[in-house]
Design brief:
The complex is a heterodimer.
Chain A (H helix, E strand, L loop, with lengths): L1 H5 L7 H41 L6 H32 L6 H21 L2 H4 L1 H28 L8 H22 L4 E2 L10 E4 L2 E4 H23 L1 H11 L1 H6 L4 H26 L2 E2 L5 H13 L5 H23 L11 H15 L16
Helix pairs in contact in A: 2-13, 3-8, 3-9, 3-11, 3-12, 3-13, 4-6, 4-7, 4-11, 4-12, 6-11, 8-9, 8-11, 9-11, 12-13, 12-14, 13-14
Chain B lengths: L1 H10 L5 H26 L2 H5 L3 E3 L3 E2 H15 L17 H27 L12 H7 L5 H21 L5 H19 L1 H7 L4 H7 L8 H31 L3 H25 L2 H26 L8 H15 L12 H20 L7 H20 L4 H4 L11 E3 L2 E3 L4 H23 L2 H11 L1 H6 L4 H27 L9 H14 L4 H14 L16 H15 L8 H7 L1 H11 L21
Antiparallel strand pairs in B: 1-2, 3-4
Helix pairs in contact in B: 1-2, 1-5, 2-4, 2-5, 4-5, 4-7, 5-6, 5-7, 8-11, 12-18, 13-18, 13-21, 13-22, 13-23, 14-15, 14-16, 14-21, 15-21, 18-21, 19-21, 22-23, 22-24
The chains are: A mainly alpha, B mainly alpha.
Chain lengths: 374, 609
């Protein structure tokens, strides 16, 4: 929105300008109408939920706490996935629609590893080693797929108009989906049940937290620390930031831009692999279509956190997870709408639409190079 | 295995860096081709295609596709990229040798894969397509060990033939290619031919075996006829071209276009009479998708706005028709006829277009794509939900929607030969409207908007109005398709409005050519006719399982190689190849621009589906 305000106004006839002012205000009115409607819905929903809670209907306090923790875990997963979107957008300025499928490839190949480990007894006898191996397999797969996609589909398109790589990535996304559908069959594959060690729940500050969810949150924090160290403290990380700021000048400074871009895809892919392992802990069942919805939601998270902003992506992921997990029950349930769980994805999509309309630069600000800010 | 390590040096007379580069290239092409061959088998495409015979006892589609891969790879060795001022290397027998070695490497890769699958039968647990049947087919029913001889041999021959193809003089090459292509095409379009010559069984009996493929005799006859005709036409080609170019003034060319258009219209009007129910059904689907593609073409092709939730407007049209006309629609009591519901459909579509268009007015192009995708999914989820099921029927949808009442009969799926006319009428309306809009004031405003929004605004284009009009026009055209669809199938439920539909329409527009009306219509005809829509079968049932894979691959391929589409609109092509055109103009220094054939577009030999 700011981009429009900054643009020098074209010279116009007075009556033309008057008409224009009128029209802008008409659009603004419409947008304000949406804002106000959204606020009214949220306020009434909250009020309804609170009055229900006070009256002792609906979820108990423990139920709400569980919901929040599981939403947090899911949000951490979205956050790791959002990193891939955010970094690629920051460097190349386009939405890598196929990133959801990079994630899906990790869950699918991770399933093979998990199944093999389960059949050979490692899953139960040495659960941490098993989970670590699954994590490594998922990360390697996702990294490879991400780099391969970049090599085949995006590298020839440097400098093309923005929509062209976006359309390419949509094509790549479908190609990958049905490749994996062909390879693994279209049915659902179910991971073995989580090992005994993390099957129960842990009490933290008086709240019972399921261990799988706690594991997911811990892995997310560790990966974020690792990524932060990589981006801010290593040479390659500095190269990445330089390329994101300005490719041409970075090239002049002796940075191998092509290799750095591959590195961005590799790091994004590795994070998607971590997210894939988290998915296996949280949901267990995977099929070739498992990447689409998490992908779109993670993109929402990336925009919510300010695209190109690495810390923002994680924050956006957690926020979106909370909104999607708690929102339907808290707001729509409060309005007395039946079957709210069916509307979970719709809530995520509404969040996407609202964020892109009203806050396209995100809550924490975008970090984009000069040419991508338009 | 040994062929891999020892064969490349045979081509290299001396071990200079150049030779090593050649060796690496041979190895890379060979392994890549082998990888693609393995891929077709691993996803099950190869096995599925085995059910379709091309020449009845001797060749099935599976082997045709499998060995077309090394042939295409081999042809790359005799491809020469002409660079200004540098002499190209002449073709040599060495090229054929290189291609043959690469082909052999590809064959070894495939044989290794077969061996791997044979050694580890457990793989089948996770990869359902790998199994003894695949190994048997891959090794051409020989043992796995002899596969190491047979597969490299055939692949090497195929690759060598692919490379040798460039040696054939241009005059003969084309008829040969056409004759070669005509056999698989005729064989795969057996249902269509069967349907067309329903009355004259002698033709189909001669052409096809009971399995629905050409026989050896008929394929030889077909090849000879096609080659002969194309050779003869090619001789006459310069004369025809000359006659056309001599009458280069606009009025004559315009007349030719109009005559061609009338012939096309007549063909469309007459053809359904000769076709059976299945073909008319197929063409009806083609028409519906063409209609939607024409609508998206206005939004994407003309105005440059990528709408990924385009299916939502289709859903609006279908559900409005359903709710208003069905006696079983949950809350709406009065049952209207289709004709009275139609104005309401248009109004609903206009409103939907404004609802989607207004919030996204100030958005970046790529964010717009994602927001529209979000809108499309929201509409689908809401229509499916229990919350709105009292209005739209939820998962059950709306049933018993009557057809279009025309002169006392109901036009719906039970009368496909009438339905097709209803669809055609709307396709013609959409084509006419788009054609008139393209060069109108608003069409030029769209073109300006598409090229540069800031500049468009600066020169006085009302961008808000232009964008909203694009959305509304697109929405109304899609709602036509929705209204027809509802009347045709009689039931609307959300399964028909998945995001896949949006993507397939996008593929049609991209493949045909953004902004090009003939491109979009032909794109719909070819893609939906041959491969089919998400829930609609196409002519080639064998591809059913893989059509979405092919659509995805097509999208990537088109964006990489020909972003302007197969039948590009001239203006759009200039935009997408602006730097090349500037370069050409600079090189030619005003020798007159030739907007055709940008870049090295190479005709692909072999029947790549």
């Amino acid at each position: 929105m700011t981009a429009i305000d900054e643009r020098p106004a074209p010279p116009e006839a007075p009556e033309e300008r008057e008409r224009k002012a009128l029209r802008i205000s008409w659009i603004d009115l419409f947008l304000w109408g949406i804002r106000i409607a959204a606020i009214i819905v949220i306020v009434f929903g909250l009020f309804g939920s609170i009055s229900k809670f006070v009256a002792g209907e609906g979820l108990t306090a423990q139920g709400w706490r569980d919901l929040i923790v599981s939403s947090l875990a899911q949000g951490a997963m979205y956050g790791l996935l959002a990193l891939g979107y955010s970094m690629v957008y920051g460097v190349l300025g386009f939405i890598n629609f196929a990133h959801g499928e990079v994630f899906m490839s990790g869950t699918m190949v991770g399933f093979i590893a998990a199944n093999w480990l389960f059949e050979n007894g490692v899953w139960t006898s040495n659960p941490f080693l098993a989970m670590f191996l699954v994590l490594i397999v998922a990360m390697i797969t996702s990294t490879l797929v991400a780099v391969l996609v970049e090599r085949i589909a995006y590298k020839p398109l440097r400098g093309a108009p923005r929509l062209i790589p976006l359309i390419t990535s949509i094509g790549m996304s479908f190609f990958l989906q049905y490749t994996f559908g062909g390879l693994f069959g279209v049915g659902f594959n179910t991971y073995p049940p989580p090992p005994e060690v993390i099957a129960g729940s842990v009490n933290i500050f008086g709240i019972d937290v399921r261990s799988t969810q706690l594991t997911v949150i811990i892995i997310a924090i560790l990966s974020m620390i690792g990524l932060w160290y990589f981006v801010t403290r290593t040479r390659s990380g500095r190269a990445m930031r330089a390329v994101a700021e300005d490719k041409e000048i970075a090239g002049l400074m002796g940075i191998n831009v092509d290799r750095t871009i591959v590195l961005v895809f590799a790091v994004g892919g590795a994070m998607a692999g971590v997210a894939a392992m988290m998915w296996s802990l949280l949901f267990r069942s995977v099929n070739f279509f498992a990447g689409f919805l998490p992908g779109v939601k993670a993109f929402t998270a990336a925009v919510l956190g300010g695209i190109g902003n690495i810390a923002g992506a994680m924050g956006g992921g957690v926020l979106l997870g909370l909104f999607e997990g708690v929102g339907p029950l808290l707001i729509l349930g409060g309005l007395g709408i039946p079957g709210v769980s069916q509307l979970k994805d719709a809530v995520a999509f509404i969040a996407l639409v609202l964020v892109l309309i009203f806050r396209p630069s995100g809550l924490f600000g975008e970090r984009l190079g000069s040419e991508d800010r338009v | 295995m040994t062929t891999v390590t020892t064969s490349p040096p045979r081509t290299a007379s001396e071990r200079s860096p150049v030779d090593r580069a050649v060796m690496r290239r041979v190895l890379r092409v060979g392994v890549l081709a082998g990888g693609v061959m393995v891929y077709t088998a691993a996803i099950g495409m190869f096995q599925t295609f085995n059910d379709k015979e091309i020449i009845d006892p001797i060749l099935s589609l599976s082997y045709l596709v499998l060995f077309a891969i090394p042939a295409v790879a081999g042809a790359s060795f005799s491809k020469r990229v002409a660079i200004e001022g540098i002499e190209t290397e002449p073709l040599s027998t060495l090229d054929i040798a290189k291609a043959a070695i690469a082909g052999a490497i590809a064959g070894v890769v495939v044989a290794l894969f077969a061996l791997l699958v044979d050694l580890f039968p457990d793989l089948r647990g996770t990869f359902p397509k790998l199994g003894p049947q695949m190994v048997r087919l891959l090794t051409l029913e020989y043992s796995v060990a002899s596969g190491f001889i047979v597969l490299p041999a055939i692949s090497a021959v195929a690759a060598g033939a692919g490379a040798a193809f460039a040696w054939i003089p241009e005059r003969i090459r084309r008829p040969l290619l056409l004759a070669g292509a005509s056999i698989p095409v005729l064989s795969m379009f057996e249902p269509l031919v069967d349907d067309l010559f329903d009355e004259i069984p002698a033709i189909t009996d001669f052409l096809y075996s009971p399995a629905g493929a050409l026989t050896i005799t008929s394929s030889i006859v077909v090849a000879l006829v096609v080659a002969g005709v194309s050779y003869y036409l090619r001789q006459r080609d310069p004369i025809i071209k000359k006659r056309l170019s001599q009458s280069a003034d606009v009025s004559v060319r315009r007349r030719t276009t109009i005559v061609l258009a009338i012939i096309a219209i007549l063909a469309f009007v007459v053809l359904p009479q000769f076709l059976g129910g299945i073909m008319n059904e197929l063409l009806t689907n083609v028409g519906l998708f063409a209609l939607m593609a024409l609508g998206l073409n206005v939004v994407l092709g003309f105005a440059g706005l990528l709408d990924l939730g385009y299916v939502a407007f289709f859903a609006v049209g279908a559900y409005t028709t359903g709710v208003l006309t069905s006696p079983l629609s949950p809350t709406w009591d009065p049952v209207l006829s289709w004709w009275f519901a139609f104005p309401a459909v248009v109004v609903a579509a206009v409103l939907a277009g404004l609802m989607v268009g207004t919030p996204v007015l100030r958005m970046r192009g790529d964010y717009l794509a994602i927001v529209t995708l979000g809108f499309g999914e929201i509409v689908r989820i809401l229509l499916l939900s229990d919350w709105l099921s009292p209005y739209f029927g939820g998962a059950q949808g709306i049933r018993s929607i009557p057809g279009i009442p025309v002169a006392g009969t109901q036009v719906n799926a039970t009368s496909p030969e009438l339905m097709i006319y209803a669809v055609l009428v709307f396709v013609f309306i959409a084509v006419y409207v788009s054609w008139r809009l393209e060069d109108s004031r608003i069409g030029r405003a769209w073109a300006a908007l598409r090229e540069d929004e800031d500049v468009a605004e600066a020169v006085g284009v009302d961008t808000v109005k232009a964008k909203l009009l694009a959305f509304v026009t697109g929405a109304v055209i899609a709602s036509f398709a929705g209204a027809l669809f509802a009347a045709k199938v009689g039931t609307v439920f959300t399964n028909s409005f998945q995001i896949l539909v949006s993507i397939i329409i996008l593929v049609i527009v991209i493949v045909g050519g953004m902004g090009s009306l003939p491109g979009v219509v032909v794109g719909a005809l070819v893609l939906i006719g041959i491969l089919g829509g998400p829930n609609q079968p196409g002519l080639l049932q064998e591809f059913g399982e893989f059509k979405l894979l092919i659509y995805g691959a097509l999208l990537v391929y088109m964006m990489l190689k020909r972003p302007e589409g197969l039948l590009p609109s001239v203006r759009r092509q200039r935009e997408l190849h602006q730097d090349e055109f500037l370069q050409d103009a600079w090189l030619d220094k005003g020798e007159g621009d030739e907007p055709q054939s940008p870049g090295p577009s190479v005709a692909e030999p072999g029947g790549q589906a």
